[in-house]
Design goal:
With 551 residues, this protein is an alpha/beta fold. It folds into 3 domains: 13-209, 3-Layer(aba) Sandwich (Alpha-D-Glucose-1,6-Bisphosphate, Chain A, domain 3); 214-442, Alpha-D-Glucose-1,6-Bisphosphate, Chain A, domain 3; 449-550, TATA-Binding Protein (2-Layer Sandwich), CATH 3.30.310.50. Helix content is 34%, strand content 20%. α12 links the parallel β13 (349-353) and β14. α2 (61-78) crosses α3. The chain starts with 21 loop residues before the first helix and ends with a helix.
């Protein structure tokens, strides 16, 4: 994220007066009724489901009742008859939303599995549960719902559907669910089946389920836990008050590893967090401002890591380098895994998104693997991970997953827990922390200078950018180098990237419209210098401005 508007609070404790008023937030969830005629109050599935704040009438009881009923209808027309695994994170709105969802699921007779202890369930654990249940089955397949706005501020909620492949639903599915949900909103919830919560919890189709034990017990099949224990790696873990908080102690006890959970507090205001770049609270484990407390402990551990609130992202802190750039850890992970997973099929590829670092391309080539570049969104990796044609999938936003040690699928959604444990395995097996491994692996591949910035754009301009034709890019040079490619579709699967990527020999930029703000995002990288990166960014804005002006 750009720090040109850096708040004076960035990296510091948040004043109590700025904390979310949770009683008022919960009142807003139940009291405010969204107006389906107002775009900002309609159900809208982005790359990670429907998100919003109850204060803005963007995530309220009506939304969840309507979406859940739409999911029930989708399951019926898709022939999905197995159990639905339902999980929530520790955002205040998540528990209320789970209550609403259970009322609808029970009324529809959907076999629903909820945490037996009433606790929180990480996104990857839901994916793992779906896939392990479905293994070997051809009918009666399971699916799931994840209630989480990821690392977003405390006053927001999120609701995501994962179909039978265990990964995020694709646009066809979310489009269908969103359309049905908005129809229910317009109809004032007519057609939504619901029963009182007390009755719903006692319904025969609502089942308590132990999510923790199967996931924790299976970790040894994806991570070399023996190596971590044997090397005595000292590990620091910060769940950032999120859904992984009750998973780490069982992991530590089962595998006998030398790990310390440095913060086990769950507080719906997230008052223990330090402010992000703009002064807001975000549980963003790739932000040096949000991660300031764990970074301060870097010398106490051989490696430390954090997860965001639904534990699908990771932030790696090393003694030698502090908080790693997410792209750097992805590249180091690819190098390590390719060299240390002998049972993986040598033909399986390495997946990355179009806006992730070109260093991943270089490391993948060095390891003799095939690169698969896809649009933004982890859903593009799901099929390859299930089939084993992809061994690893990673996003620049610090989300990744990879195959089990025997080459079978682990999860088809991002898994921040195994990425943190992988950092410990790397330290155990190589004698280097992940920052040192990255430096070693990339010493002969050049140096990456990578950044993301934002630039203003109207709604009309964002729409134009999302549907751009490569021929609309008139420029022939970028930062003094000839343009070699103008891409609006990802080379790995020929799917639209929702913007444009312009590539030269030593640099590139990608421009994509923001789904929530009047800006577009510019991802850029140079393999020459920080100064060259700035030229790439400046030229990128000029290229996009020329497109806007030509319209």
């Amino acid at each position: 994220m750009s720090d040109t508007r850096l708040s004076s609070l960035a990296g510091k404790p948040v004043p109590r007066a700025m904390l979310a008023n949770i009683p008022r937030l919960m009142t807003a969830y139940f009291a405010l009724t969204p107006d389906a005629e107002v775009a900002a109050q309609r159900v809208s599935f982005g790359t990670s489901g429907h998100r919003g704040s109850a204060f803005a009438a963007a995530f309220n009881e009506w939304h969840i009742l309507a979406i859940t009923q739409a999911v029930c209808l989708y399951r019926r027309q898709a022939g999905i008859t197995g159990p639905l695994f339902l999980g929530m994170d520790s955002h205040a709105l998540s528990e209320a939303a789970q209550t609403s969802a259970i009322e609808v699921l029970a009324a529809n007779g959907v076999e629903t599995m909820i945490d037996a202890q009433g606790g929180y369930t990480p996104t990857p654990v839901i994916s793992h549960a779906i896939l392990t249940y479905n293994r070997g089955r051809t009918e009666g397949l399971a699916d799931g719902i994840v209630i989480s706005p990821s690392h977003n501020p405390p006053d927001e909620g999120g609701f995501k559907y994962n179909p039978t492949n265990g990964g995020p639903a694709d646009v066809d599915v979310t489009g269908w669910i969103g359309k049905q949900a908005n129809a229910f909103l317009l109809a004032k919830l007519e057609g939504v089946l619901r029963m009182p919560y007390a009755r719903a919890r006692k319904a025969a189709c609502i089942h308590p389920y132990d999510f923790v034990t199967p996931y924790v017990a299976d970790l040894a099949n994806v991570i070399d836990m023996d190596a971590i224990r044997g090397a005595g790696v000292r590990i620091g873990i910060d769940p950032l008050g999120g859904a992984a908080v009750n998973y780490w102690q069982p992991v530590i006890e089962r595998y006998g590893i030398d790990a310390t959970v440095v913060n086990d507090v769950v507080d719906q205001t997230f008052a223990f967090m330090t402010a992000d770049w703009d002064g807001k609270i975000r549980m963003d484990c790739s932000s040096p401002y949000a991660m300031a407390p764990l970074i301060a402990l870097r010398d106490k551990f051989d490696v430390a890591f954090a997860n965001d609130t639904d534990a699908d992202r990771h932030g790696i802190v090393t003694p030698s380098g502090g908080l790693m750039n997410p792209n750097a850890f992805l590249a180091a992970s690819v190098a390590y895994l390719c060299a240390n997973r002998p049972e993986w099929d040598s033909a399986s590829g390495i997946g990355k998104t179009a806006v992730s670092s070109g260093m991943i391309d270089r490391v993948t080539a060095k390891m003799g693997r095939r690169l698969v570049e896809v649009p933004v969104g982890f859903k593009w990796f799901s099929k390859g991970l299930i089939e084993g044609t992809l061994a690893f999938g990673g996003e620049e936003s610090a989300g990744a997953s990879f195959l089990r040690r025997d080459g079978q699928v682990w999860t088809t959604d991002k898994d921040g827990l195994i990425m943190g444990l992988l950092a410990a395995e790397i330290t155990a097996r190589t004698g280097m922390d992940p920052s040192q491994l990255y430096a070693s692996v990339t010493a002969d591949l050049g140096q990456s200078f990578y950044a993301r910035i934002d630039a203003p754009a109207t709604a009309e301009q964002k729409m134009l950018l999302s549907k751009l034709d490569p021929a609309q890019i008139a420029a022939t040079e970028l930062a003094g180098e000839p343009i070699e490619a103008r891409l609006t579709r990802a080379p790995g699967n020929n799917e639209p990237i929702g913007g444009v990527k312009v590539v030269t020999r030593n640099g590139w930029f990608a421009a994509r419209p923001s789904g929530t703000e009047e800006v577009y995002k510019i991802y850029a990288e140079s393999f020459l210098s920080a100064e060259h990166l700035k030229r790439v960014q400046t030229d990128a804005q000029a290229v996009i401005s020329a497109v806007f002006e030509a319209k």
